[in-house]
Amino acid sequence: MMARLFALTVFAYPLVLALLCLGAGLVVDRCSGRFLPLALLPAIGAAALVALSQLSTWITPLAPATPWLMLAFALLGFVLAPTRAMLARLRAAGPLLLVPPLVYLLALAPVLLAGRASFSSFMALSDSAVHMIGADYLIHHGQSYGGLDLSSSYDLFLENYYGTGYPSGADTLFGGSALLLGLPLIWAFQPFCGVLLALGTGPAFTIARRLGLARGWAALGAFAAGVPAIVYGYELVGSVKELLALMMLLALGALLALHSRWLTRGARRAVPCALVLAAGVSALGVGFGAWALAAGAVLLVVLVDRLRRGALAGRAVWMSVGLGGLVLLVAAWPTWRHLSQSLNVAQNIASTGNSGNLQAPLKWTQAFGVWLRGSYKQSPVGVAAGATYALIGVTLLACVLGAVHLLRQRRFALFGWVGLTVIVWIVLSRTATTWVDAKALVLTSPVLVLLAWGGVSALLETRELGAALLGVLLAVALVGGALASDLAQYHAANLAPTARYQELAFVGKRFRGRGPVLFADFDEYAMYELRGMQPSGPDFVYAPPALASLVSAPDGRRYGGRIRLELATQRLLSPYRLIVTRRDPSMVPPPAEYTLAWRGRYYEVWSRGRVRVPREVARGDATLTARPLQCSAIVRAARRGARLGARAFATLQPPIVRVPLARASHPSGWGWIRSGWAMQHPGTLGVPFSLPHGGGWQLWLRGQFMPGIDVEVDGRPIAQLAGQLSGNTLMPDPVGPLRLRLQAGSHRLTVTRTGFSLAPGNGGSAVLETAFLTPAGTPVRDLRALPLNAPRSTLCAKRYRRVELLAR
Fold first, then answer.
1. Percent of the chain at pLDDT above 90?
2. CA torsion 486→491→496→502, rounded to 10°?
3. Helix ranges restricted to H, 81-118
């Protein structure tokens, strides 16, 4: 089953999506006079499919038919295309046909080499969770948000994003294409990002050809422009809006480079350019207007020059502008229809002080495609820093040479587009926020890389052997620098835990329609898997305000903090029929009115019965080292229950043996962060612990374990862990239970981070926060009825976490 899912998501789906885009591109090419080169067809087709999916989801009754409308539109293109002409174009494409597959394989390398369905944006940017739920909702319900229930986090996310004019072009394209195959969007997400990156190489190839590069060199230049370090990093974190906008930006540049084929050849030839502009606006909102204006300025100069020389009639210009404007208006109608909201979104993004996952602004030098560090958010160090800036210097010199080469070739339109694109980036970097500056840098980087390949073209065109050899070396440096940078990021990627989300998907199907559900963990991807249960998380960005008191973190934050169900009252929990928790015996379970309905390896589902809790009178702390309730609190609860005529139930504190990690022996370089060890390189940690009695025990490790981790007790192998990640870097969840039999007395736990390898994620997160043991057979929750009128010694004979009064 998992092998079939893997094959469908990483191989079948990308092929289907690429064919959909190619077929749609053929329709546009036929309608606009067949002037588009093969390299541009998929990108233009993607723009057309964005327009189609935006319009079909805007007409709510048509929304569920979106996948089939996209299929019919693409099939029409293949029907209309002459077979012989198409085969001739494919044969003439030569090395171009290799570039998109190679870029896709590189983009999806972490998932492909892991051999399981997953995505690499995990723990980096949870916006991808929003795109998953948004794509699913838009295809099933359309762009209609009036019926949302704002008491759940799921609906709050939809309202606060898509209900306020958030650009959804990438999401409708994603949802329409993936649901055509019935794929879970959570596993199709990263392949979709990879396809967007790959299809952008077609326009890059067209630009490279206009730079004067032969087909083989142009294909190599398109490959390098497809995978600059910062762009590759944004692909890994699933920035679908930027990836789609980047494809459209490069398509604009390609159309400008080919302006002589369409700008003065009839009004219908303006349709592809209008569709590209519309798709850019649908993907990025009105913020795409900055790059659209840059392209428009170049076209205006060209048109004025043609009019001045009498090479073009004014009537033809107005017809082209009129038809292009109409297509632009209709194709991006949902955005124009809510223009004020879209403007507000763009203004909020441009002025927000929230830098998202960026602790500091990105460096302007990252635009040149090289960054020898595992994360684009961190600067290279040591030898890598020297190599990085040396390669950046070479690329900068190549850009200067490329600019001179464009002017000498009299490619003024292409030169103007490159120059204005760079100016847009410079202006935004000086005036906009950290978040917007990063987006502009991503969109500019491939343009600068292509300009550097103009320098390669200038050197290769000379007849001097030395200059040509220098051009070859420059090409090697440009490609090698990008590949080395991407390899570093591939190695540090954190992949989503497949098995855990498969289990959560099972929970979502089994309990569908039985919500609302309180999700007592930080993991916003759970909103997608539990979307049929009206999920709410008190620690999500958008959470019902009443739940805020259930969250705490060491630094006082709510977002991403730890859920404290021991603070829950009947009033807070009354809306929720179900509670989903992680398996963690160190945490306080739900109140007594909830009974365990299902248990898996990672999650427990609790269902509320008919018993109501009128008042909770005593509760303890949820931490692993929490002290049990004081005897005086237990006695007061019992006496109050007697006066109310209620029943009293106490939650017994389970026996937990904590492993004292703070006293562990460890390799030099492993740092102690917050309350655990950051295993920053291969090595072994060892720590002694003692058990009060022998028998069966369960070992639990709380942390983040992306690379391989070997666990041993007394030199005996217990488990090998890898790819076990929580949804939150600050609050790791436990992995376990690891079952073993031990005698009473002293033992030794060793945890080894395995050596360096080229496996995906081998350089990812590795943190051991806590280790503890519980006796085998410890119940998930041990409730004891308290005899209300019993003496103090009887009431306080056990260690309790919480006492509750239940109505008789």
1. 57
2. 110
3. 83-93, 99-107, 109-114
- Read off the pLDDT of residues 20-32 as tens digits, 9 standing for 90 and up: 999 999 999 999 9
Mean pLDDT computed over every residue of the chain: 88
618 or 417, which is more confident: 417
Least trusted range by pLDDT, from 3-12, 54-63, 620-629, 770-779: 620-629
Q: Which residues contact 164 (CB under 8 A, 6 or more apart)?
A: 341, 344, 345
Distance CA 800, CA 80 (A): 75
Distances (CA, A) of 619 to 225, 562, 604, 633: 59, 17, 22, 9
3-7, 291-295, 402-406, 555-559: least confident range: 555-559
Provide the sign of the torsion angle of the four alpha carbons 292, 297, 299, 300, taken in this order. Answer: positive
Q: Give one word for 536, left, alpha or beta, with left for phi > 0 and alpha for psi -120 to 50.
A: beta
Confidence of residue 360 (pLDDT cuts 50, 70, 90): confident
Distance (Å, rounded) from C-alpha 201 to C-alpha 33? Answer: 23
pLDDT at 624 over 50: no
Considering all CA atoms of the chain, what is the largest pairwise distance in Å, rounded to the nearest integer?
Answer: 107
Among 66-70, 521-525, 546-550, 620-624, the least confident range: 620-624
> In one letter, which amino acid is 397?
L
Q: Which long-range contacts (CB under 8 A, 24 or more apart) does 428-431 make?
A: 428/290, 429/364
- Rounded Cα distance between 210 and 413, Å, is 11
Distance between CA 756 and CA 489 in Å, rounded?
15
Q: Which two tokens stand for residue 451?
A: 């300009």
Assign 3-state DSSP to the chain and report helix, strand, coil percentages, each to 5. Answer: 55, 15, 30
- Token digits of residue 234: 């944004």
Cα–Cα distance measured from residue 211 to residue 459, given in angstroms and rounded to the nearest whole number: 12
Using DSSP, state whether 800 is helix, strand or coil: strand
Q: Which two tokens stand for residue 187?
A: 């596993």
pLDDT per residue as tens digits for the range 34-79:
899 999 999 999 999 999 999 999 999 999 999 999 999 999 999 9
CB 69 within 8 A of CB 58: no
Question: What ranges do the domains of the chain cover?
Answer: 2-339+390-491, 497-613, 657-775
Q: How far apart are the first and last CA of the chain?
A: 48
Domain 657-775 falls in which CATH fold?
Jelly Rolls (2.60.120)
Contacting residues for 656 by C-beta, under 8 A, at least 6 apart: 585, 586, 624, 772, 773, 774
